[in-house]
Write a structure and sequence with these properties.
Elements lengths: L1 H5 L4 H13 L3 H14 L4 H13 L3 H14 L4 H13 L3 H14 L4 H13 L3 H14 L4 H13 L3 H14 L4 H15 L1
Length: 196
């Protein structure tokens, strides 16, 4: 606050105060400070993204979408914003928009395993198993210890009747994360199916 007394239009100081108040659970104050940061720096992508996160956490998806779009307009390289915006699109049933935003993120971040994985999830929700599998395969190639992606790859293979591939992917998921009980149950079911 001392900085603001000396420089009342210091966007970074407003942003920092917004972060502090958000961590303290004082969301209205956090929102006010983030808005002030953007007022003094209209292309302050971190502040716009933080406003988006704040609104997302408060389930105010319309405002979150608006702020995330502004953040990407200010800085199209923010991988987390693509993921968060896509997730909101999925939650609100806007699957084509989710696919679009994940695809746009991948253009800027082709090596983001998380973007490929999330694109795979969106495709799965659309019933596009071949595209789902393709994206999960890219995700595990980019991040070989990505247990969730291996697990979901196995589930997608199983839905396509590719039991051997499903078992291999799920075994890899369990190897990476031995505490995943859901995948252990899936593996048992698949092995029983394979025996019959």
């Amino acid at each position: 606050k001392k900085v603001l007394e000396l420089k009342p239009n210091h966007a970074d100081a407003y942003y920092s105060l917004g972060r502090v108040y958000e961590k303290l659970g004082q969301f209205q104050l956090a929102e006010n400070y983030y808005q002030e940061a953007v007022k003094y720096n209209p292309i302050f992508a971190k502040a716009q993204a933080s406003l988006g996160d704040l609104y997302r956490n408060l389930n105010n998806y319309d405002k979150a979408i608006k702020e995330y779009k502004l953040a990407l307009g200010s800085n199209p390289k923010l991988v987390e914003v693509y993921i968060n915006l896509g997730t909101i699109y999925e939650i609100t049933g806007m699957l084509n928009d989710a696919v679009g935003i994940y695809g746009a993120g991948i253009k800027h971040h082709p090596k983001s395993a998380e973007l490929h994985y999330n694109l795979g999830i969106a495709y799965k929700k659309q019933g596009m198993l071949d595209k789902t599998i393709e994206q999960y395969k890219i995700a595990v190639k980019l991040k070989p210890n990505y247990s969730e992606a291996y697990g979901n790859l196995g589930v997608a293979y199983a839905k396509k009747g590719m039991i051997t591939e499903a078992i291999e992917a799920i075994e890899k998921s369990i190897e990476i994360d031995p505490s995943n009980e859901v995948m252990k149950q899936n593996l048992i079911k698949l092995k029983l199916k394979q025996e019959n």
